[in-house]
Write a structure and sequence with these properties.
Keywords: Carboxypeptidase, Disulfide bond, Glycoprotein, Hydrolase, Lysosome, Protease, Signal, Zymogen. InterPro entries: AB_hydrolase_fold, Peptidase_S28, Ser_carbopepase_S28_SKS. This protein is an alpha/beta fold. It has helices spanning about 100-105, 105-115, 145-165, 180-190, 215-225, 230-245, 250-260, 270-285, 305-310, 320-335, 355-365, 385-400, 405-410, 470-490; strands at about 35-40, 45-60, 70-75, 90, 120, 170-175, 195-200, 420-425, 445-450. The protein folds into two domains: about 50-205 and about 415-490, 3-Layer(aba) Sandwich (Rossmann fold), CATH 3.40.50.1820; about 215-405, Four Helix Bundle (Hemerythrin (Met), subunit A) (Up-down Bundle). It has 14 helices and nine strands.
């Protein structure tokens, strides 16, 4: 999930685009094989083999005037799926290219042999190659909704079970992280006849109007930095005033541009964008504070927040330039850990594998996630949640008004106890924990908190540096999978 949007208005949802007064950009036939790919997972150096297929999917599942179809991409690995009625682990694709999520969801690959499972990674409509109107898709965004995406997944699963030999009675478990985790949980809620259970990792299904405190997201980000180095969060809080001071003179702008190694000289009107760039950087670092070297959003060292904080452990009364020199070195940990960047571009923060503009639209319609900061309990400048300003900016961008209560109405808000067989896992370091289910609601709506976990750490490949807590979490998740599969196949 993209990081919260660091622009005037609102930080919209992932890793990783919310908060602010208003949202502004920094801004078809039966399955046909396309390729057989071998992908080397960059963080773990593992070879992943999958086939790529395309499925003729309805553009509109809920009306009858639009009868067109589009090619929905999905990836399949069945090397361990040998037994009739063997289970299917189904990844509910996020807001981006499905191959990226496939390569970053090592948990499914690690357990496929043990479960004798087929792996299916389904791409979300309007992202990657699954474009309902081809290159013109972003001119026709009305069919980009979570409800349509869930229907895509349900129809695809139903077709697979009908057409694949030995799959008619295969139990299917939905798995997803971040927005994909939200979809996995909602798929189980809306289509319990299609999936027998779901693992919703780092899934902020409650990060919506009046469901959780609006300031918690940024409090968690701040706590991560406060716990990772002396004076770290305090100096970041101080940096905003220091930036304002240097932006007030031509000499200060020139100094900042050089010190941060920017690709272009800062101008006075760049103040908000520059601070927004830094804000999103701190959020992204908290999200991907993994215990080993990884490149989920950027190539980063082990425990990157601790590495960042080494540059910010001086006294809180140092001069502005000394403070901002430390900030510039900290920022380079995120953007130039490998030393290969020639310069830094303040308009680029998130990975290109995410469909940022599509997510902006979703955030301007049904995915309205209120956030705010106060500058006291968090390390950011104060910014109140302003729904009207947010709505006005969405209308200016897309000609639509957000429905702030729609997700609560469609998916039940906090009244979900009637559902079953969903695991909600959250990392204690992950700011998206603020909108997650952090306490079990019943014997089959299970919440797991991972003390040393960042954004959906449990869905990544096993690693020699994994803390014991995430290893135990994965064991527990597999135990529940086996329980659900046994219940389904013995009934």
């Amino acid at each position: 999930m993209p990081a919260p949007l660091s622009v005037p208005g609102v930080l919209l949802i992932f890793i990783i685009i919310f908060h602010v007064e208003a949202l502004k950009p920094h801004l078809l036939g039966r399955h046909s094989v396309r390729t057989l790919r071998s992908v080397r997972s960059s963080s773990q150096q593992r070879d992943l083999f999958y086939k790529t297929f395309y499925f003729d999917q309805q553009i509109d599942h809920f009306g009858f005037l639009e009868n067109g179809t589009f090619k929905q991409r999905y990836l399949v690995n069945d090397q361990h799926w040998h037994k009739a009625q063997g289970p299917i682990l189904f990844y509910t694709g996020n807001e981006g290219d499905i191959t990226w999520f496939c390569n970053n969801t090592g948990f499914m690959w690690d357990i496929a042999e043990e479960l004798g499972a087929m792996l299916v990674f389904a791409e979300h409509r309007y992202y990657g190659e699954s474009l309902p109107f081809g290159n013109e898709s972003y001119s026709y965004l009305n069919y980009l909704t979570s409800e349509q995406a869930l229907a895509d997944f349900a129809v695809l699963i139903t077709s697979l079970k009908k057409t694949l030999p030995r799959a008619q009675n295969s139990p299917v478990i939905a798995i997803g992280g971040s927005y994909g985790g939200m979809l996995a949980a909602w798929l189980r809620m809306k289509y319990p006849n299609v999936v027998i259970g779901a693992l919703a990792s780092s899934a902020p299904i409650w990060q919506f109007t009046d469901l959780v405190p609006y300031g918690d997201f940024y409090k968690i980000v701040t706590q991560d930095f406060a716990n990772s180095g002396v004076n770290c969060s305090k100096n970041i809080r101080r940096s905003w005033t220091a930036i304002n001071n240097l932006f007030s003179t031509a000499e200060g702008l020139q100094w900042l541009s050089k010190e941060f190694g920017l690709c272009s000289l800062l101008k006075e009107e760049d103040l908000y964008n520059f601070k927004g760039w830094l804000q999103e950087t701190w959020v992204n670092l908290a999200m991907v504070d993994y215990p080993y070297e990884a490149n989920f959003l950027q190539h980063l060292p082990r425990w990157p927040v601790k590495v960042v904080c080494k540059h910010l452990q001086f006294d809180t009364d140092v001069p502005d330039k000394q403070l901002l020199y430390g900030i510039s070195q900290a920022v380079r940990v995120y953007y130039n850990y490998t030393g290969s960047a020639v310069c830094l571009n303040v308009s680029e923060t998130a990975t290109r594998s995410l469909g940022i503009m599509g997510w902006y639209y979703q955030s301007c319609t049904e995915m309205v996630m209120p956030m705010c900061t106060d500058g006291v309990q968090d390390m950011f400048e104060p910014m109140a949640w302003n729904f009207q300003a947010y709505s006005d900016e969405c209308y200016a961008l897309f000609g639509v008004r957000p429905r702030e209560d729609w997700v609560d109405t469609v998916y039940g808000g906090k009244n979900i106890r009637s559902h079953s067989n969903i695991i909600f896992s959250n990392g204690d370091l992950d700011p998206w924990r603020s909108g997650g289910v952090n306490e079990s609601l019943s014997d089959s709506l299970i919440a797991i908190l991972i003390p040393e976990g960042a954004h959906h750490l449990d869905l990544r490949f096993n690693n020699e540096y994994d803390p014991q807590s995430v290893l135990l979490t994965r064991e527990l998740e597999v135990m529940y999978f086996k329980k659900w599969i046994k219940q389904n196949t013995s009934s």
